[in-house]
Amino acid sequence: MKRYRIAALFIIGLAYVGVNAQETYFGKNKVRYKDFEWSYIQTRHFDIHFYEEAYPTAKFAATVLESSYVEVSKELNYKIQRRVPVFLYNSHNDFQQTNILPSLIGEGTGGFTEVFKNRVVTPFNGSYEDFRHVLHHELTHAMTFDLLYGNAFSALVSRRRLFQMPLWLAEGFAEYSSRHGWDAASDMWVRDATINGYLLPPMYLNGYNAYREGQALVKYIADKYGEKKLADIFRKGKIYLSINKALKKSIGIDQEKLWEEFSREMKRRYWPEIALRQEAEEIGTKLTKARKDGSYFNEKPVFSPEGDKIAMFTDGSDFTEIVLISADDGKILDRLVKSSRNGDLESLHAYVSGISFSPDGTKLVFVAKSHGKESLFFYDLLRNRVYKKKRFDFYNLLSPAWSPDGEKIAFSALKENERDIFVYYPQTDQLDRLMNDRYDDVDPSWYPESDRILFTSDRPHPQSEVVTGEEHEYVTAGAFMPGDFVYGWYNLNEIDLSNREVTAVDVGAGPNTVPTVSPDGSKIAFISGRSGIDNIYVAYTDSDRVYPVTNILSGIDYVSWSPDGKKLAFEAFNQGAFDVFILDEIVPVGDNGTLTPTAFAQGDNSLFTFDQSEESVDSALADVEDEPGEQPMLASLDPDENLSDDQAAASGDQQPFDSTMATPVSTEADSSQTADGKEDDEVITESGIYDEEYVHVSDGRSGDPLDPFMFDVEGDSSDVRKTVVVEEPPSFDSIAPPSSSGDYNIQQYKVKFTPDYVGGGFGYDTFFGLRGQTVFLFSDYLGNHQILVATDLVNTIDQSNVLGYYVNSKRRINYGVGLFHSKNFYLDPADNLFSDRFYGFQVFTSRPFSIFDRLELTASQFFIDREHHEADDTLSNRSSKVTTAEFSYVTDNIIWGLTGPLNGRRAKVTIGSGLNLFDSRDVEFYSAEFDFRQYWHFGGLYSLAFRASGGASNGRTPKLYFLGGTTNWIGNTTLDAKVYEVENLYFADVVTPLRGIDYYSLAGDRYGLINIEFRYPMIDYFAMRFPLALTISRVGGAIFLDMGSAWEGSNFKAGTTHGGLPADSTLGGRGSEKRLLDLKTGFGFGMRANLGFILLRYDIAWSTDFYSVSDKPTFYFSMGADF
Fold this sequence. Notes:
The protein is an alpha+beta fold. It contains 15 helices and 57 strands. The strands form 12 sheets. It has a 17-stranded antiparallel sheet that branches. Helix 4 (128-149) packs across helix 6 (167-178) and helix 9 crosses helix 10. The protein is globular, with a radius of gyration of 33 Å.
């Protein structure tokens, strides 16, 4: 369904209430490329939904969710009070088709949690570690939403809904919990932001910044003030409805003071790194100019076989594209393909995939999403065109690599919930799957003989080996163990195509990823994070020699060899963006092949150092006092005992711990003795009773895999450390546990409607008396079925306004039906009072071909009863029955700016009719309209917009088009009696903008309109203190020219001469000067401001006939986005 589906429900109901409908509606599509038949399993807290062959994935998710729940429950000191529905998609492509979120989902979205129904939605991409992280991250959102807002009803009526949790806290805490405090990726980002000066105050954090810096802020609070303060901040926010008040009450400082302390501590931590490492520009030749040229992602560089060119991805033109650049200076030589323009090439997977040249350098192969399917695209560089597209029936094709013999393409792909390496033979169309296991296998690279492939995998590897007891197991601090499955620690492996034997490649401690074999096969370049920063290392294939060749401050994400083996192209994170560099000299760096590890790599994960005195924290907290009526911090986890909207919440004293798996716990009371005579760790609940639920194996940050779960039980003087398992609420006891074999009872999903939105109000006026309004929006948990009911009730039903709509978007063809009734009163220009009772029904459907284009069909039956309330015999009542139908084709691939479209194209062609099915002889017409819009982006906020539209209508009562004014103009409008005729009030179109010309001043059954508008940044920042405190940033400006006309039949005369002579007259003199006649023109300039919750426009326009200009301009104050 289209991404504006919910809004469209309201629009449909109001579309025919009058000629006030001024805008053409476009929008991209959410395409259902496949039907999903859902089932679900239940754990104690979760209903986990899945489809097709994803039952094993659902079982894995059950383990992760339940174990992560205990961790988050301890961090928040809270137990959820309602079950959490979880929806798992088999791939990101399937995930993008979900209707749970009506808007389009980008490639960078790894999952989401919907606040009202607390639904967790996430895809599986082949990496179990990514999957674990996202599940934990989204569960954290679900639990904080439950803590803050309660169930759906309380979220609607409670004052706590007024608390707007800042993004840095929401995402920061989710990352803090799911990343177990801190991780290398966030360390890289905050280090780069601190050194390069783009660390932002929390008040201004948004987008990706909110995740990484938010995690750092949350970690800083936990390290300095204690982790229990995190839960306290959430509870204080629910009480005081302000993050500043919550921080002040909890830790004694507001956001501004927090930023001051935090930024100082980050400088203290990261500035010393400058002396230990180098910027990417210091060690290599920079080929791209991220940020300066408008790009942020310049990725996956690969040398051509000649070595003089590099192919890479870039987003410098707003759309992700593949370009060829010079390997010497980075000059763009050719732009090959762009994504996000049509359904054939919806996306290029630039974040995670790569590009490969054929051995002769005449062709490229890359992966793209085409009409919802993953495909290999073969591009002919000599003819500049895609010459072959191979579509596969599996997911997540990544990183194609052309073999040196030119006969094979290796790539990784997700099939049957396993991501493995595949080899495709283009000449024979043969496909081989090289392995079939649950390990994550990616990044294939060929050896020169084309008989072996080097790749990255999280399968067991000697470099991940540690001793656990008498036997060796493949377990590390970075690998996680649900049951007997080890995953999450990546290293290098190779596979022999002749026998499919996989061999571990020993290149030292990891994680080691993105390997690439040198052209002569003697060396391997790869990315390793062993020092805490991702750097390039080189290993020799004929010896155990391994050494780093870079030591940069930020991090490197991708590397490839030059054809002569003397250079490396790499992609590095650089000042908040990604740039491409050339490493001209491949020489060892560091101390005897070892780089100085970061504080994070050395195990120093604290973002606060008590280098002055712990008294500073004590003094800060000394000012924090409980407000009157607040209860002290309690040990109980029961929110019903400790929480209310007017009371502070509980927080326990337990330390944070990590979780990744769950195994049954023995209920035997006795315990064996260890060699030193001490008892084994006991497993208890908070009430001291053994529980057969979940015990968690951590990533063992301190060396002991169970250490993060251990703490001294209050009042227990023994040396036995206890693993606490949170008791489950009684309401969850009815859920049957899995069988002894670990299997769950699989149930079929059934449609059940629950509210998405409930709103209303009431009022009193002297005309209608008491009246009330309500809006109800219901949907099922998958969002495939929606019901809207809206009412505006007055003293009698026939005076009330009611509409109800049902929309079904389960399959590719979407459809809906609706009923509506309204009663409207009008005063015509002669002050005659009349009313229209307007009611009927609609049926509508749409069929998207891709994200960008679709067909629409709408059929409506309208009944209009007009009643005059004046004692005037010349005015007679009338009833009309009108049947209409519209058939439209819509295409839209635009990129949005701050106040309107910035780049791309959109168009709509519509054929409509008013049919005479009841022989009412009232309204009968046929019409055709088009609307074409093109946008050019020149960089920054500079763009040019062009629009051409037109329409024509025929029939016994042709449809009229009114031109003039601007959309959503806030001002007085003078209408003549013609506008109030039934045919015009409900079936005419108002076409805007035609600025400089009054509303409705042009009317006819034909129209044409051209708009040209140059948009530019006008005011970067404006602040006023008196008489009104007002701050506005990024105000845009516009210079425009509008030209249009409306006319009857063929009665159109574009221009004339001043003296009445024909426009093409060759007579000289003053009387022969040309001017426009029926073609009206306006020009002017304006300002636009995006205030976040509303878009405001202010335009000043003059009319002209190109002979003279109007003496006074027309001023337009309006709302809404630019055309």
